[in-house]
Amino acid sequence: MAGARGAGRAAATGARPGKRPRGPEPEPEPEPEEPSLACAPAPSLQDGSDSGLSESEESVFSGLEDSGSDSSEDDPAEREDGVSSDEGPSGMEKTTGQQVQAGSPSPRTEVARVQGCEEYAEDSSDEEDIRNTVGNVPLEWYADFPHVGYDLDGRRIYKPLRTRDELDQFLDKMDNPDYWRTVQDRMTGHDVRLTDEQVALVRRLQRGQFGDGSFDPYEPAVDFFSGDLMIYPVTNRPADKRSFIPSLVEKEKVSRMVHAIKMGWIQPHRPRDRTPSFYDLWAQEDPDAVLGRHKMHVPAPKLALPGHAESYNPPPEYLPSEEERLAWQQQEPGERKLNFLPHKFPSLRAVPAYGRFIQERFERCLDLYLCPRQRKMRVNVDPEDLIPKLPRPRDLQPFPTCQALVYRGHSDLVRCLSVSPDGQWLASGSDDGSVRLWEVATARCMRTVPVGGVVRSVAWNPHPTVGLVAVAVEDSVLLLNPALGDRLVVSGTDQLLSAFVLPEEPAVQPARWLEASEDERQAGLRLRICHGKPVTQVTWHGRGDYMAVVLAAAGHTQVLIHQLSRHRSQSPFRRSHGQVQRVAFHPLRPFLLVASQRSIRLYHLLRQELTKKLRPNCKWVSSLAVHPAGDNVICGTYDSKLVWFDLDLSCEPYRVLRHHKKALRAVAFHTQYPLFASGSDDGSIIVCHGMVYNDLLQNPLLVPVKVLRGHVLTRDLGVLDVAFHPTQPWVFSSGADGTVRLFT
Predict the structure, then answer these.
(1) Among 263-267, 282-286, 300-304, 687-691, which stretch is predicted with the lowest mean pLDDT?
(2) Which residues pair with 723 in a beta bridge?
(3) CB of 664 within 8 A of CB of 678?
(4) What pLDDT sits at residue 373?
């Protein structure tokens, strides 16, 4: 064994570590009288074992683990055949650091190798072929070391030099004919050339064959037990005792089964009837039948029975005339009452084959196969029970029912109106550039104030001791003193405005407060608030000191809040959430409702935070109104919907009313009566009863009670604004026909 190992080491030291032979090596002729090279003692750099290497020599090879060369070691075939003598002096050049890697055997080992050369020359046991003896351990453990393991004598197996780049590998692949059969041994890191037998073994395994080429998988099997009666038994083991003693467990099982058969719990198997069973597919379904046992079985639709027209000898009235025949041919197949023309034959034998027989049978099969039949549970419900039990409108009075007065005087469409807190006066703004003040009871125009532009919004101050009307004209808000009614209220309003003292250092504000000139004061104007951007709406807070303004501009300054007593303006928002359509103050709490195109946001002004976001699920919000109790909100949309929100219930709509045919322009709540109204471009005002209960467990009751008409459609516009009287169940409406109408 030691001789074989020494021969392998000698062959390994004779090879050059970096180059393989360029071609196949010629086999040397046998010379039995001279010992082969494989049996010669391996030259060594130094006598002794691996421990003869000094630390400096070990440090030379300690950095070889990261080099990427492809040094070769002689494969097993070369160990057996030996090194050819044709190499000449090149064999001496190959003796580089590989000899040091292999190590020098001891003298005792060399003697044993020379003595046992002939005995172990052909030994190829697995134990001797494996040079690396580290066992079944991961080779990653040796990644940071210059060696990959140890041989049988305990000497290190150093990693081969790897100094070859991709170009050298490519040239080796082109020049070396054995490149395709060369693999790398992971245990030693050296290249191994596969022999012909190993290549044949790999190919057999790739094809799914047996590894042994001489194995015949199809050879006849030899039965161990033959079918012939044998004189001597294969096994002569004596029989068990349990084979001839009755089993108590089986006896108990049999007694149980006998008892079950006597009680009728187990029925004996009856012979199965092999005759096929047929049933009538079109018969009336019997609950005991095969298909009747399926609960969800839906019977196939029955074919209509043939009538007199399908007879071969129909009555004369069923035979079509020539005009009816032509009309039948010109009709579409789906419009014909009969899909055939009745014919008369003298006898049944003269009836020809039906031309559409196969087509009709095929369509019938398609109807049976593709028809989506579904069982629908019919519920006998009275249609009257589905209608909600709403009270009669006569029980919900009072509410406006008829037109009482028409306020005429504007020459263009009236966009907005507002009623004074005492309900005696009415202000209206029009596109003709004027604001008119009316007496409600007589429809008399008390005053006309020209403002020089289109009036977008008018709002009367809700405080009873402050007689001011805010008018939105172009980019300004005008504060008018109408000088109507109580003289103490008129004089007190002027004293309130004149009591303001301008500070020495005015703060920077988003709007400018300008005093009216002497001529403007004669017309009733007291203050002008300039914004620089068009104003679309103005609305007052319930206490009359604050008002909110909506500007038609992008950005966070779309909504401004003005304080009348201090002449101060502020922008409450830092960023915008879309184009603002309407704003409204909460009647009881410090909330501000801001309606954009798709949503309504509820802001807490003291905490400066968003409290709730309402989703109307509509395309465009046009108007907004808050219930006097503050817990319900309605909004009108341009897609002809009125949406009611219950703030205590959900952010989704409680009820969506679709009573109008066109876009809604205005919605309003009554301050005292449970009424709300909506005006639309279809020229109608719909008054609804909206009762909100104090009991939180009871939902609001919404009942439409009256449809009011009177406005004439102008430029496809109808009612533009709606407002309720503060104390009476009356409703005012302004329209595109230039009139204001009162319904009582």
Answers:
(1) 282-286
(2) 732
(3) yes
(4) 62
Q: Are 524 and 480 in contact (CB under 8 A)?
A: yes
Rounded to an integer, what distance in angstroms lies between the CA atom of residue 200 and that of residue 204?
Answer: 6
Q: What band does 231 get if pLDDT is binned at 50, 70 and 90?
A: confident
Instruction: Report the candidate in 285, 322, 290 with the shortest Cα–Cα distance to residue 300.
Output: 285
| pLDDT digits 0-9 by tens, 307-355 | 999 899 999 999 999 999 999 999 988 888 888 899 999 999 999 998 8
Sequence letter at residue 513: W
Give the DSSP H/E element, type plus range, for residue 723: strand 719-724
**Mean of pLDDT over the chain:** 78
Query: Residue length, the chain?
Result: 744
Distances (CA, A) of 527 to 464, 514, 520, 560, 564: 19, 6, 9, 17, 10
Q: How far apart are CA 711 and CA 679, in angstroms?
A: 11
Q: Is the pLDDT of residue 502 over 60?
A: yes
> C-alpha 300: how far from its chain's center?
41
Strand locations in 139-214, DSSP E? 147-150, 156-158, 182-184, 191-193
Residue 527 and residue 500: Cα distance in Å, rounded? 12
The residues, ordered by sequence, that sit 6+ positions from 150 with a Cβ below 8 Å of its Cβ are: 132, 133, 134, 156, 157
Which range among 40-54, 216-230, 358-372, 585-599 shows the weakest confidence by mean pLDDT? Answer: 40-54
3-state secondary structure 368-388: HHHCCCCCCCCCCCCHHHHCC
CA 358, 364, 368 angle in degrees (round to 5)?
145
Chain segment 626-652, per-residue pLDDT in tens: 999 888 999 999 988 899 998 888 888
pLDDT at position 198 is 93
Indicate whether 611 pLDDT > 80.
yes
| 294: region left, alpha or beta (phi > 0 left; psi from -120 to 50 alpha) | beta
Report how far residue 696's alpha carbon sits from residue 689's, in angstroms, rounded to the nearest whole number. Answer: 19
Residues 6 or more apart in contact with residue 330 via CB below 8 angstroms: none
Q: Are 586 and 593 in contact (CB under 8 A)?
A: yes
Side chain identity at residue 718, one-letter code: G
- Host H or E run for residue 114: helix 107-115
CA gap 637, 618 in Å, rounded: 7
| Pairing, β 559-563 against β 568-570 | antiparallel
pLDDT value of residue 703: 86
DSSP class per residue in 229-286: PPSS-S--PPPPGGGSS--HHHHHHHHHHHHHHHHTSSPPPPPPP-SPP---TTSPPP
**17 touches 161 (CB < 8 A):** yes
Largest distance between two CA atoms of the chain: 150
Reported as type and span, the H/E element at residue 361 is: helix 357-370
Q: Are the beta carbons of 739 and 721 closer than 8 angstroms?
A: no
CA distance 646 to 678: 18
Query: Residues 478, 525: contact at Cβ < 8 Å?
Result: yes
CB atoms inside a 10 Å sphere around CB 210: 11
